[in-house]
């Protein structure tokens, strides 16, 4: 069964408590449950990781890339500065989709830059928690197509 790593960066553990206008009202556990449910429907394994620390995210990618078929990442505040995360993703050679709950391109200027986006196969921003589902569906289709 294909496996997708779902990685969330700083402050995403506080979903449901943060500005609901930007981030919605669902918690990270609820988001993860929705992703897992859709993954099960698609025959895709999902594993979840969240950290407020850049090095922990790098360690997680390095430790789990070999058994994975893709990555969905919301780098949170590390999106703009997480070069070590980018390097770990590049080293993994896994197709990566970057997800943001809010539309980072319609927010403050500093949020509009991503060190990951130019190297990702795609970026989904502004579609709330459903962006993770769309990323999962995309990666599932990409994996299926690669096996034809």
| Biggest sheet, spatial arrangement of strands | 2-1-3-4-5
Q: Given this structure, which CATH class is correct? A: Alpha Beta
CATH third-level topology: Rossmann fold
Tertiary shape: globular
Number of DSSP helices? 5
Q: What is the second-level CATH architecture?
A: 3-Layer(aba) Sandwich
**Roughly how many Å is the radius of gyration?**
14 Å
Give the averaged pLDDT, no decimals: 94
CATH superfamily annotation: Dehydroquinase, class II
Number of strands: 5
**Secondary-structure class:** alpha/beta
Strand content of the residues, in percent? 15-25%
What is the helix/strand order?
EHHEHEHEEH
Low-confidence stretches: none
Please tell me the total number of domains.
1
Report on the biggest sheet: 5 strands, parallel
Q: Tell me the helix content.
A: 25-40%
Distance between the termini: 15 Å
